[in-house]
Amino acid sequence: MYAHPDDLHRARSVGAAAAPEFAAWRAFQDAVDREDGAVPRRYRELISVAVALVTQCAYCLDVHTAAARRHGVSAEELAETAFVTASVRAGGSLAHALLADRLFEHHGHAAPSATPPGAVAPTG
What pTM was computed for the model? Predict the structure, then answer.
């Protein structure tokens, strides 16, 4: 397995190699993790879990499921979040299928080229 929980400790050493960027990212993360936002922290963690499911980041999933539990998220809320995430992701696939359908139709109206670009057309 490539992802390993101990790798989370490497963030500091990776951050030290890009200190200004890491400091900016930490400041942004601290702002997102604040307790006094209009969106309660437990919802922020459920959103974070949903994004981690979509991006398939095992480290984010580890950190945010732990934080969700600390902020009172129930197993049922976590499970429902997973299914809402799966449904929205499937909806995104359907939305792209609509685009693919339109593009397929568009390409059907264009006259197909008998000779690929750069090829020499056969003579009679």
Answer: 0.76
